[in-house]
TrEMBL record:
It catalyses: [E2 ubiquitin-conjugating enzyme]-S-ubiquitinyl-L-cysteine + [acceptor protein]-L-lysine = [E2 ubiquitin-conjugating enzyme]-L-cysteine + [acceptor protein]-N(6)-ubiquitinyl-L-lysine. Coiled coil: none annotated. One of its GO terms (biological process) is protein ubiquitination. InterPro entries: E3_UB_ligase_RBR (IPR031127), IBR_dom (IPR002867), TRIAD_supradom (IPR044066), Znf_C3HC4_RING-type (IPR018957), Znf_RING (IPR001841), Znf_RING/FYVE/PHD (IPR013083), Znf_RING_CS (IPR017907). It comes from the Eukaryota. Might act as an E3 ubiquitin-protein ligase, or as part of E3 complex, which accepts ubiquitin from specific E2 ubiquitin-conjugating enzymes and then transfers it to substrates. It comes from Triticum turgidum subsp. durum. SUPFAM superfamilies: RING/U-box (SSF57850). Residues 70-291, 74-120 form the RING-type domain. This is RBR-type E3 ubiquitin transferase. Keywords: Metal-binding, Repeat, Transferase, Ubl conjugation pathway, Zinc, Zinc-finger. It is an enzyme of class 2 (transferase). Belongs to the RBR family. Ariadne subfamily.
Length: 336
């Protein structure tokens, strides 16, 4: 029961699950709530405290209706905010203002990560439904996309090769035409024929290109050795700039600044210098952890660049728009 009240796991019995949901919903209405174990002989005292707490909350609610505004201090920005604009994270009840929650989620999403509760040490994942109160429709759309991406293993991800679509699918979702419908295509490589679940365009699951009618995969690759010109350019650019490719999901990663301990969007941790895995937050290699040149950013003249908070906000706003313009451009998703 203690684990259920903390939201760590859900009971199988429907009545008990509904009751736990009601308790969790009530918890979010309190400024502070902590679940503790007590002895049976202390239950009467606990009930007394609960009644006093409820009466206190009701008294505060009456104060609101009489014109006095209730305010709560946000643990992130440290500003006193109207309680109606304070969000309680579902499952852990940690509370933060709408503005800080939006910025926290936006930064995580635009870096390709699923947002969790911003409370230090809390790993409770945020939900789309719970985030609707403070997120814009665009950010909600990105959040849905991130959750969708996270549910598909890296080796199972398939993107539609048609530029105007670029829909994300899993290997199990792509449409495999019936044998009769394949008769209009050459039978040589019809086993690799697939259809996009979104645009219904035909493509080759082996070559990852629009369907090459009357041509085997071998013939197509011989005639189009540079079919993925974008991939070739990306590999050349990565080689020149010493970028690294995640061995787990194959996303390309660039170190802009900071230490050599890298965490990919898929969660894999590795050393940027040699590529070896980090385990339990520790390296498995003896490479240096950082280079001072990556810790302090300088401009062209060698002067230290000072962060501009307003400029960063504008940059994130632009990124949010760019995500929708290039939603299908999965070649760029690995640059973090």
């Amino acid at each position: 029961m203690h684990e259920q009240l903390l939201g760590f796991w859900r009971p199988t019995q429907k009545k008990l699950a509904d009751m736990i949901d009601q308790v969790l919903s009530v918890r979010k209405k309190f400024k502070q709530c902590e679940v503790l174990f007590v002895e049976r002989r202390q239950l009467e005292y606990v009930m007394k405290l609960a009644r006093e707490s409820v009466e206190s909350q009701l008294a505060k609610a009456i104060t609101v209706h009489t014109g006095m505004e209730m305010r709560e201090n946000c643990a992130i920005c440290l500003e006193d905010t109207d309680v109606s604009k304070i969000h309680a994270v579902e499952g852990c009840a940690h509370r933060f203002c709408f503005s800080c929650m939006k910025e926290h989620v936006k930064v995580k999403l635009l870096h390709g990560m699923l947002p969790a509760c911003p409370q230090d040490g809390c790993t409770k994942q945020l939900t789309v439904e719970g985030s609707k109160v403070f997120l814009s429709p665009r950010l909600l759309g990105i959040m849905v996309q991130r959750i969708r991406e996270a549910q598909i293993p890296p080796t199972q991800k398939i993107y539609c090769p048609y530029p105007k679509c670029s829909a994300l699918m899993s290997l199990s979702e792509v449409i495999q035409p019936m044998q009769e419908s394949c008769s209009k295509y050459s039978v040589a490589d019809s086993a690799t024929l697939r259809k996009c679940v979104k645009c219904r365009g035909s493509f080759c699951i082996s070559c990852r290109v629009p369907w090459h009618d009357r041509m085997t995969c071998h013939d197509y690759k011989m005639m189009h050795p540079h079919a993925h010109s974008g991939d070739a350019k990306l590999e050349n650019l990565a080689e020149r700039r010493l970028w690294r490719k995640c061995v787990k999901c194959q996303h390309m990663i660039e170190l802009a600044e900071g230490c050599y301990h890298m965490t990919c969007v898929c969660g894999y941790e590795f050393c940027y210098t040699c590529g070896k895995e980090w385990k339990a937050k520790k390296p498995t290699c003896s490479c240096p952890l950082w280079d001072e040149r990556n810790l302090i950013r300088n401009d062209i003249g060698g002067n230290v660049v000072h962060e501009n908070i307003q400029g960063d906000e504008d940059e994130f706003d632009d990124d949010e728009d760019d995500y929708y313009v290039q939603d299908g451009a999965h070649y760029n998703q690995g640059f973090r």
